[in-house]
Structure formats: structure tokens, C-alpha cells
Amino acid sequence: MAQLFPKHHVMGFIFSLVLTVVAMAVVVYDLSYTAAMAILLITAFMQAGVQLVMFMHAGESEDKVTIYTNVIYMVFFAIVTILGTLLLFIWDM
Amino acid sequence: MKIDNSLPLEYSTEENRLKILGFWIFLAAEIALFATLFATYFAYQGRTGNGPGTEIFEITPVLINTFALLTSSFTIGLAVNAMRLGNKKAMLTFLGLTLALGLVFLGVEIKEFFTFVHEGATIQTSGYLSILFSTLGTHGAHVSLGFFWGLFIIIQVSKYGLTPHTANKAFIFSLYWHFLDVVWIFIFSFVYLKGMM
């Protein structure tokens, strides 16, 4: 039975629940915009990291380098798309 | 077909390994899709016209959905673990649990959409609501597709057993499901929580 619930999976799950509760702080407490956004960014990216490394086994095959390069490149692409849009339409620079 | 028995079933042939790599490349393209949706969402934030804005969000259904998806991501991880132990029965149980939680998610999200529309927030009301429904809907459509995909995986595994072929399909499905959970975390944080701040 214990075999069916490996420790690092259970830890990953508990960790993701904790991160969700921490992220909830931004609606429960009256934080400044900067502090709230910092909390959301940190918890969201940590959640993504937990999924990627602990659950998706990203690093276990011989294609490890290709997979990580590909994902990191696309995350970079996503950040450029989102920040670029914010820069033009919201921050008005 | 050369089968390398030192590796888990889903990686045991070269074709299997390359299929998993190919799926990672597809997932990276999906990151680009959701990035453009998020970018548009941020650009349209506050452009609500005469319609309602983020005040339509309610915390309870969002929390139910978050816990349903987080737990389903955990159970599908356990399904892959059971598959590697060669325990077909446990694997199918965990897969079934995953899909049941997926259904809970879909049910709550559909009900939430009905509530929104009831409150006068439709996809045609404003630019903001158009992109809100598009972003949530694209993710919801992925979960719906994943539900049927998972159903076919369950049928195939119970029919043909654990072979390099079916194990590979199940593993790729697990990657897809974890990815949907990651996208949901970003929706939860930057659409719902940020909107309710």
C-alpha cells in the first residue's frame, strides 16, 4: 500500500496545498498591490515547478536537456508576450 | 521493435521516448497559446463598458475547482506510479478518481458560467468579459477534451493491459493533465485572486 503513495508525490501534493493557502492571503489580508503581486508570482511559479519536476518527471529521460530547453524557451516567450503587452497597453511606456 | 527492459514501459522503445519528447514540444506550444490569452486578458482588464467587472467572482466555486484540480493532478501522478509498479488495478482506480475530479471541476465551472450570465455578464457584454470567457473557456475545453481522452485510456488499458503502447499513451495523458493543472494555477492566481483583491 505504501508503495502506491510514494513519499515525494505526497510531499508534492501537500506542498501544492500549502502554496494555495499562502496565495489566498492576498484576498484575506489587506496587502499593498506590490506585496500581493509578489506573493502571487512566487506561489504560482513554485506551483508550476512542483508539477514539472515532481509529477511530470521532466528530468528523467535522456531527452532531459531538450525538454528543459524547450520549456524554458517557451516560458521566456510567454513572459515576453505578457510583459510586452503590459508595457504597451497598461503601463503606457 | 527493440524493447529496453531497464526502462519504465512508457519509455521502453525509441518510438515511445520520441513520442514523449514530441508531446513536450506540443505542451510548450500550449504555453504560447495561454500566454497570448493572459496577455489579452491583462490588456482588457477594467475595460468593462456598462457590464460588470471582477465583482462577479465568488471564492467558493473557485476554491472547490482549485482543490479538485490539484488533487486530480496528485491522483494521476499516483496512477503513473502504480503503472510503473505494474499494478493495473490501482492504476485504473487512480485514473478513475482523476476523471471524477475532472468532472467535479467541469460541473462547478459550467454552473459558474451560468451564474455569470444570470448576473448579466455574457461573452458579448464587454471586451473584458469576452477575454475572460475565452481564457476560462479555452482551459475548460482542454479539461473536457482531457476527460474523454482519459476515458479512452482507461478503456484501452483495461482491454489490452499494460503494454509499452498503452503505458506510453497513459503517460502522455498524465503530462497533459498536469499541464492543465499548471494553467489553472495561473488562472486561479492572476484572474481570480488578483480580481478579488
Concise description?
Chain A is mainly α. Chain A is built from three helices and no strands. The chains are: A mainly alpha (93), B mainly alpha (197).
N- and C-termini, Cα separation of chain B: 56 Å
- Report the order of strands and helices of chain B: HHHHH
Quaternary state, please? Answer: heterodimer
The coarse overall form of chain A would be: flat
Number of continuous helical runs of chain A: 3
Low-confidence stretches of chain A: none
Radius of gyration of chain B: 19 Å
Mean pLDDT of chain A: 89
Architecture per CATH nomenclature, i.e. the level-2 architecture of chain B: Up-down Bundle
Q: Report the sheet with the most strands of chain B, covering strand number, pairing sense and barrel closure.
A: none
Shape of chain B: elongated
Strands of chain A, total number: 0
The chain-level mean pLDDT of chain B equals 93
Low-confidence stretches of chain B: none
Q: Profile the largest sheet of chain A.
A: none
Measured distance between first and last alpha carbons of chain A:
58 Å
Radius of gyration of chain A: 17 Å
How many domains make up the 3D coordinates of chain B? 1
CATH topology of chain B: Four Helix Bundle (Hemerythrin (Met), subunit A)
Question: What can you tell me about this protein's structure?
Answer:
Chain A: It catalyses: 2 a quinol + O2 = 2 a quinone + 2 H2O. The complex is a heterodimer of chains A (93) and B (197). Chain A folds into 2 domains: 1-56; 62-93. Chain A contains 3 helices and no strands. Chain A has helices at 7-28, 33-55, 64-90. Chain A starts with 6 loop residues before the first helix and ends with a helix. The mean pLDDT of chain A is 89. Chain B is an all-alpha fold. Chain B has a single domain (21-196), classed as Four Helix Bundle (Hemerythrin (Met), subunit A) (Up-down Bundle). Chain B is built from 5 helices and no strands. Chain B starts with 13 loop residues before the first helix and ends with a helix. Chains A and B meet through helix 1, helix 2 and helix 3 of A and helix 1, helix 2 and helix 5 of B.
